[in-house]
Amino acid sequence: MPQPPRPSSSSLFRRKPMDAAPEDSGLKRVLGPATLVALGVGATIGAGLFSLTGIAAGDNAGPAVTLSYIIAAIACGFAGLCYSELAGMIPVAGSAYSYAYVTMGELIAWIIGWDLVLEYAVGAATVSVSWSGYVTSLLAGWGIHLPARFTASPFQTVHLADGSTASGIANVPAAFIIILVSLLLIRGTSASAKVNAVIVALKLSVIAAFIGFGIPWIDTANYHPFIPPNEGTFGHFGFSGVMRAAGTIFFAYIGFDALSTAAQETRNPKRDIPIGILGSLAICALAYVTFSFVLTGIVNYADMAGDPAPVATAIDRTHITWLQIAIKFGIIGGFTSVLLMLLLGQSRVFFAMSRDGLLPALFSRTHARFHTPWLSNLFFMVLTGLLAAFLPIAELGHMTSIGTLLAFIIVCVGVLVLRRQAPDAERKFRVAGGPIIPLAGILSCLVVMVSLDGLTWLRLFVWLGIGLGVYFLYGRQKSRLAGAD
């Protein structure tokens, strides 16, 4: 019988064996393949579909944003396939952190675990601010006006009812939804999954309604030219614009990787995690391509440049009042399900790191009744709630993207490393084509990372520097593998 790679005892690059997962993690195994697909769709379809489509079409690709979604789906699919192979071999909580611990050692695992805070916690704060904006808009349409200064951070300027301007105090709705979702997660993964399933069904129904009712309003003239000629600058239409748009809307696919953080709450993780990842990616890609095709048919791409709500603009042209309200509910529901998976993923990554001794035990302490890492949920409820309420999260949006892309690259590298370390180990799912797909995943993610601005890179290095300080002062000495040195 093939043996897994032996753990390394090198101080910084000591590795865990693939069979190091504890028999009893304290978490309930309640998730099946259908639930995982629903969670993946819920985590993925959100701000990207409803906001980035119009931005990418109006500024970069025109109607060819549909092609951009296909290109991004292919690139993201490379990472998804690699996640599936590793999830089948290493069915433990922690996602890219756990995979890196087995393949590349403790230091790389710590870096990626710390990096994932940018994807999950900062990402959740960003989404909650968007959630707040749409809820505020929906309530205003019903004549309910929330105090403007309590829907914005202190770094934002708001317009008051008397026409004057003032600085915000705190984004209370954003903090409220963080608290609500965190309490739901503490209540239990099964209950959270049921709520998510309802939201996903509503969201997909709204998308289907937009497509179905929107098709008669398509003006085929809006598709000409399908790829607008380049304006002389890279990324502004032409083929380079299609590629730039693919980089922009690539982040619309972020979320599926959070499924792998729930491996220890899945009944048959070696089979069900790959199904959940690839199934949710396929559904989201189909929804994105179809949705963007209808959207650019209803509204000319030039009219979407600078429009913060292109979907609302499109649906307003149908003059179907109930559909306009339904779309807003769908968007709010989309944001809510994304928050659910981001906060779930964050608590499970720190759960795994705590179980390994790299973080204090409170992050892996489970509730006696609900069997969830409730203290970890509470910690990130406070941290993410404060970020959402008091900081201009929009300026940190790229941090979420660069953190996610780094995680994707490490997962793709992990597949190549593990094939070399343990070529005969059992693989419930194996990416075909040898090293081609993992290398394609690494290259595509690097291309997108390079396109991000220098300030984003600087923030990443500063954040990772803080994390390394925590590791060398605490994690390295407390690690469960420290005794092997």
TrEMBL record:
Compartment annotation: Membrane
Region feature Disordered, mapped onto this chain: 1-26
Gene3D superfamilies in the cross-refs: Amino acid/polyamine transporter I
Keyword terms of this UniProt record: Membrane, Transmembrane, Transmembrane helix, Transport
Keyword Membrane among UniProt keywords: yes
GO molecular function: amino acid transmembrane transporter activity
Keyword Transport applies: yes
One term under GO cellular component: membrane
Listed InterPro entries: AA/rel_permease1
Domain of life where this protein originates: Bacteria
Name of this protein: Amino acid transporter
Transmembrane segments: 34-57, 69-90, 96-113, 120-144, 164-186, 198-218, 238-256, 277-302, 322-345, 374-394, 400-419, 431-450, 456-474
Membrane topology qualifier: Multi-pass membrane protein
Lineage: Bacteria, Pseudomonadati, Pseudomonadota, Alphaproteobacteria, Acetobacterales
